[in-house]
Amino acid sequence: MLPDSERDGARxxxxxEPTDEAIIRSALGGDAEAxxxxxxxxxxxxxxxxxxxxxxxxxxxxxxxETLITAYECLDRIRDPSTFAQxxxxxxxxxxxxxxxxxxxxxxSLDQLIEAGFDPPNxxxxxxxxxxxxxxxxxxxxxxxxxxxxxxxxxxAEDRSYKEIADFLGLPVTTVTMRLTYARRLVIKKAREAELx
Length: 197
Hints:
Layout: H1 4-7, H2 20-28, H3 34-54, H4 57-73, H5 84-97, H6 110-115, H7 123-127, H8 131-142, H9 146-156, H10 162-169, H11 173-193
Helix pairs in contact: 2-3, 3-4, 3-5, 3-9, 4-5, 8-11, 9-11, 10-11
């Protein structure tokens, strides 16, 4: 377990939980349970990112699990434990790239989006959009280059703030802002080409 000084607030985040850095130091010091705290903290976020990258829940679950295992095995290689979120997201993105995919991203059904936790922000608005229109919009998003699709989905499907996205991906907030702006423009252009708007 974490040392008393860390449980008493010396290395706590703003939510009163141990920081990633404190947990990593404890895990590297032989605390067998410490890494489990990181798994609990990042499992859902990694699963969401993996799903947005590959569009398949089973593949995403495998990628997230493999990422957590690789991160544990390589924990002693992290240079700055305070950047764990960016480091582990990088591992996941590398694992995704190494899948050797050459085909375009698979189409995501509305049922898969809902199963993965997507909830349209305005039910009245969602009721006026047909399943076919939603499928076409999802295809527009899926066709984006991964760096733009990733920030767009983190922002709108997971409702992450610009700062949260920047922290998670290890990017400056200005880069996130620029990628989101460009991603929105690309989606609008693709939607116009498909005569959705």
